[in-house]
Amino acid sequence: MLAEKTITLASLYKILFKEEPLILSGPCIQKLEESFNFLKTFSNDKIIYGINTGFGPMAQYRIEDESLSQLQYNIIRSHATGAGQPLPELYVKAAMIARLYTFLQGKSGVHKELALLITEFINRGITPYVPEHGSVGASGDLVQLAHIALTLIGEGEVFYQGKKRDTASVLAENGLQPFQMHIREGLSVTNGTSVMTGIGIVNLIYARQLMQWAVGASVMMNEIAASYDDFMSEPLNEAKHHEGQQEIARMMRQWVKGSQCVRKRENELYNGKHEEKIFTHKVQPYYSLRCIPQILGPVYDELLNAEKVLINEINSACDNPIVDPDTQNVYHGGNFHGDYISFEMDKLKIAVTKLTMLAERQINYLFHDRINGILP
Fold first, then answer.
1. Stretch 140-160: mean pLDDT, rounded?
2. Where are the domains of the chain?
3. Beta strands of the chain (E only): which ranges?
4. Interatomic CA distance for residues 365 and 330, integer angstroms
5. What does each C-alpha distance from 288 to 80, 249, 284, 365, 374 come to in angstroms?
6. Nearest CA among 67, 73, 71, 69 for reference residue 156
7. 2-193 and 203-317+338-372 share one fold
8. Quick one: which of 290, 303, 176 has its CA closest to 231?
9. Which CATH fold topology does 203-317+338-372 show?
10. Cβ proximity of 47 and 53 under 8 Å
11. Distance between CA 114 and CA 28 in Å, rounded?
12. Which residues are part of the catalytic machinery?
């Protein structure tokens, strides 16, 4: 797959789950070179955070020229202090893709060799060992990104071909050279939202699969119950102006098309004279069967919003400072801050929980003979 400046969820799925390789396009490499060359010239006689100053509360201290390269190595080694179990390899791969796309925006001032080496890691299945605990989020995924950066300079450990190994030997085996610092690459690799974004993207893909299964299972439950099908009808759901509800109802109609197991209300209850005092078949199914569009609709809407936020983030420069060759300036701010992702992932977690609660109620209906009235 040719890597351009932006990437879609569909392309991410292919790279993550189908192992489609990435190739950096000519314009992307050119953008990297422009940003690096501008920063190299611009930073000669100026004070710029993380290039010739300390980090965080030490930003008030100037770093002498002979220590600038060591400064970039120091931030990686000092922050690679995570604890706990390693993050699953798929999440780390997603985080590397997210970091790569931050650099492809051309606003980080990093050397193109860094982006090319990350691409090699992604394509060759070289996955940095990244402990799951220790990051902040408010100041970027510092600890986790530092563990990724540690492997890019030839240190630390990686997972390769099913085994955890020292990075240096894996790089040598693949004919790859550790990255050498140029201007600010140490800070740029460790500072940003790429780990939370990568994890969020994988979880969103899983959640979308769950949604498909939840709709299919819900249709089958209504077939088992021989429900009247008007709860999924277009006129009923168009009467409520929510995209998610209408889309879930449409999906259900598509699933149930041609089924002989659901009933038509107009054929049984709206046809002829009815004198029964008690109807043996339920006039309306239980909420867990009848309210699928209203329950899964908000979940669907949240999946759409989560995709929008995650794709916006991965196609953004979540670095600090921002190096802008277009305006010939370097801007200090907080694009590393993680609230867009953390807010959205909290909402996605609530949505998936809601989906599983619906499934639990449907299972309760299926196995409880006094509720369903039709099964042993």
1. 96
2. 2-193, 203-317+338-372
3. 2-3, 23-24, 83-86, 127-128, 131-133, 157-160, 163-166, 322-324, 329-331
4. 61
5. 48, 14, 11, 8, 16
6. 73
7. no
8. 290
9. Fumarase C; Chain A, domain 2 (1.20.200)
10. yes
11. 13
12. 49
List pLDDT tens digits, range 301-315: 999 999 999 999 999
- CATH topology for 2-193 is Fumarase C; Chain B, domain 1 (1.10.275)
Question: Which residues are 131's β-sheet partners?
Answer: 86
- What is the C-alpha separation between 121 and 127, in angstroms, rounded? 7
Residue 328 has a CB neighbour count (10 Å cut-off) of 9
List pLDDT tens digits, range 19-63: 999 999 999 999 999 999 999 999 999 999 999 999 988 989 999
- The model's pLDDT over 187-230, given as tens digits with 9 standing for 90+, comes to 999 999 999 999 999 999 999 999 999 999 999 999 999 999 99
The per-residue DSSP string of 55-92 comes to SGGGGGSB--GGGHHHHHHHHHHHH---EEEEPPHHHH
How many whole angstroms separate alpha carbon 348 and alpha carbon 100? 25
Residue whose structure tokens are 């600010």: 184
Regarding pTM above 0.85, the answer is: yes
